[in-house]
Amino acid sequence: MQPVKFTQARIIAFDNDGTLYPAGGEVCMSVLAAHRTYVREKGLDIPTPGLQWVQSHIGADAREFYAMMMPGQPRSVIEDFEEYCLHHEKSAIDARPHLYEGAPELLAALKEAGKILVLVSNGSPRYLKHIWDAAGYGNYFSQMYPYGPPDYGSKGDRLKLAHGDWGGGPAVMIGDRRSDWEAAQFAGLPFIGCRYGYGYEDELRDADHVVSSIQGLAKVLL
User: Fold this and answer.
1) What torsion, rounded to 10 degrees, do the Cα atoms 54, 55, 59, 62 define?
2) Where are the domains of the chain?
3) Which residues does 24 contact at the CB level (< 8 Å), separation at least 6?
């Protein structure tokens, strides 16, 4: 099999959390703070998980993530909690809008090189819009493809849609979790795994290439 030539990709699809944005710190802490307050105010007997638990579930689709934090609760409560969390998350994002070191420079260089950049995330539309605005994603990306209504399509569905929306051809998916690799497989695209993110080592075992830093990503893309 011939090695994948990532520099030839004209469409580059990025995951967000753990790939470009370090959500595992302040944002995760804000989710935990929101959970503690919410269950106390609503009188729910649900323990708040630890930071490691939240970090290990970064990358799950938004509906699944909030449901796991509200086990046994009806959808109405889960949706109410998600809404409650979003206010806390927005404050955390506004306070810490910075991408991984070197990421803005990489995105700018890719755009300057004529690449089409799309953001394909399992975050909700509102969550991703918060980061889009705070981090200045509009300076680099052509479009975002979050997880949400009307059809709540899988990440693979949305990656395939993004690929078609922007003319198809050589493309690559970049992410830090197994779900990103699965999306690339579904869309028939190669995958670069980011070891510096929140995925476990084994999640990237089938990646076409693995990098350990933003700088390593720049080397294979440029």
Assistant:
1) 20
2) 6-22+99-221, 26-95
3) 17, 18, 54, 55, 58, 198
Q: What is the pLDDT of residue 4?
A: 66
Q: What distance lies between CA 103 and its chain's CA centroid?
A: 14
CATH, domain 6-22+99-221, list 2.102.30.10, 3.40.50.1000, 2.40.110.10, 3.40.605.10:
3.40.50.1000
d(CA 46, CA 202): 31
Beta bridge partners of 60: 58
| Whether the predicted model's global pTM rises above the 0.90 cut | yes
63 strand-pairing partners? none
Phi, psi of 14 (to 5 degrees): -110, 135
φ, ψ for residue 149, nearest 5 deg: -65, 160
Task: Tell the residue number behind the tokens 């030539």, with chain if given.
Answer: 5
Q: 129, exposed or middle or buried, with CB in 10 Å at 0-12, 13-18, 19+?
A: middle
- Expressed in angstroms, the distance from the first to the final Cα of the chain is 22
What mean pLDDT do residues 34-63 have?
96
Q: What is the secondary structure of 10-22 as a DSSP string?
A: SEEEE--BTTTB-
Residues 6+ apart with CB under 8 A from 218: 102, 105, 106, 109
